[in-house]
From TrEMBL:
Location of the protein in the cell: Cell membrane
Domain ABC transporter: 54-288
Record GO biological process: intracellular iron ion homeostasis
UniProt GO MF annotations: ABC-type transporter activity; ATP binding; ATP hydrolysis activity
Name recorded for this polypeptide: ABC transporter ATP-binding protein/permease
GO CC annotation, single: plasma membrane
Keyword Metal-binding in record: no
Length: 305
């Protein structure tokens, strides 16, 4: 009898593989909205992560030949430390994250992870080492359990629940009509910005990467949700090399180092206290935000960029 079912099994498997491929592609394009422009060099070895140090060495980059976006960026993030990138809108903050994930190759200079040029190792191995908590998470039209479990192929239900607890979303999931089996996404239950962000965090916890990119949401969350999410993010970035693309100042104060980017150039760097003392662009942005907080009675929602 099993002979009879084997072709059917195979068909099912092919179907699932194709479906997964389509979902992955959809996720890829929606999440990052960039075409695949990078190919591996023949015989490229995989990245070997030892401690997770990240270094940008004189990185020059433009999306189009006529326009340079990053004009010689030097950044080093020691293993396990947190670097925040701030600066006006269009300065190139998100571009830094896209280059680290190797959606594009740099025009000149190098990006190194533990001393290895990411352009010389396989893309897959670079992406395996990095978790992204994006600004605006796109959910798959599937169950919430699937959406969390996507962080690691073959994750068990217990592991999924563990990750959900880590992201403070487990209790919320249990309160849904069908728990982890509840369908979400465009054709299912719509989740709020904060809930989606927690799904992204749970997914990242499952993936357990040594390097983390936090692309802070530009849209405002209410300050209680924001504070709760900050706490979880602080927790998951503690043991990981973290780069925070900050559109607001809320995560920045605690960072080990802040770089201020303006028109593709690092114009200031230091800790929050050092940058306030330097009384430059960062201090100006900080004061402006403080004033906005006062006049508008806003919490952490103030937009930096
Ligand atoms: P914001 O705070 O507004 O998100 P940012 O500092 O993150 O801004 P980037 O998204 O890195 O800025 O964009 C830097 C510059 O690169 C912008 O001028 C933008 O128009 C340009 N840019 C971004 N993505 C592309 C792309 N895919 N193709 C061409 N130009 C792009």
């Amino acid at each position: 009898l099993s002979q009879l079912f084997r072709p059917l099994d195979l068909l099912g498997m092919v179907y699932r593989t194709i479906r997964q491929g389509l979902i992955d592609m959809e996720a890829m394009f929606k999440l990052v909205d960039t075409p695949q422009e990078v190919t591996d060099r023949p015989g490229a070895p995989p990245l070997q992560v030892t401690s997770g140090e990240v270094r940008f060495d004189t990185v020059l980059f433009g999306y189009d030949p006529g326009r340079t976006i990053l004009k010689g960026v030097d950044i080093t993030i020691a293993a396990g430390k947190t670097l925040a990138v701030v600066g006006p809108s269009g300065a190139g903050k998100s571009t830094i994250a896209r280059l680290l994930f190797r959606f594009y190759d740099v025009t000149s200079g190098r990006i190194l992870i533990d001393g290895q040029d990411i352009a010389a190792v396989t893309q897959d191995s670079v992406r395996d080492a990095i978790g992204i908590v994006p600004q605006d998470m796109v959910l798959f039209n599937d169950t919430i359990g699937y959406n969390i479990g996507y962080g690691r192929a073959g994750a068990t239900q217990a592991e999924i629940e563990e990750a959900a607890k880590g992201a403070s979303i487990h209790d919320f999931v249990l309160s849904l009509p069908e728990g982890y089996e509840t369908r979400v996404g465009e054709r299912g239950l719509k989740l709020s910005g904060g809930e989606k962000q927690r799904v992204a965090i749970a997914r990242t916890l499952l993936k357990d990467p040594p390097i983390l990119i936090l692309d802070e949401a530009t849209s405002a969350l209410d300050s209680r949700t924001e504070a709760a999410i900050q706490e979880v993010l602080g927790e998951i970035s503690r043991r990981r090399t973290t780069i925070v693309i900050a559109h607001r100042l809320s995560t920045v104060v605690e960072a080990d180092e802040i770089v201020v980017l303006d028109q593709g150039v690092v114009v200031e760097r230091g800790t929050h206290a050092q940058l306030l003392a330097a009384d430059g662009l960062y201090a100006t942005m900080w004061r402006r935000q403080a004033a906005e907080r006062k006049t508008e009675g806003l919490g952490v929602e103030d937009v930096l960029a």
